[in-house]
Hints:
By secondary structure, the chain is mainly alpha-helical. It has 9 helices and no strands. The chain has helices at residues 3-22, 25-41, 43-47, 52-71, 92-106, 110-121, 126-133, 137-155, 160-165. The longest helix is centred in the first third of the chain and has 20 residues, at 3-22. The termini are far apart. The mean pLDDT is 82.
Amino acid sequence: MEYEQFVRERQRALFRFAVVLCGDPVLAEELVQDVLARAYERWHLVAAARDTNAYVRRMLVNEFLSWRRRSRRAAPVAHFADDALPGAPDHADGRIDRIDLNDRLSALPAKQRAAIVLRYYAGLSFAEVAQNLGCRESSARSQVTRALAALRIQMTTPSPALDRES
């Protein structure tokens, strides 16, 4: 597969994956562009991979984890534009749920968040999650288990998204 064809076919899916991974569409776009630029430079290696999509997805995860390590930024928050039309159904509850979930995921350490996104958003097996994170399968299971436990604890506290809305 040629680079241009890969980008045409997979860029939107990679962007959606990156948004879920980092929680901010602007950062996700930067992340995808950086990774695609690096993939272009090494396309002969990327194209030779057994699963090109998995290879680039792993590049996204690695880049996300290195950004988090380098910057130690505050947890990103996605802001949704109010594009409701008069007379249109109110989708506020759905938005609040997405914002709440994003806030709670953003509070997790980078590896735990990546493990949750790979396991439940990308639908990968624990072996594939481990491969993407560069660790053993038992470590991947541990990351997912710890993340779920942290999310359960967070669910007992009031939502940060609801606090902002008040």
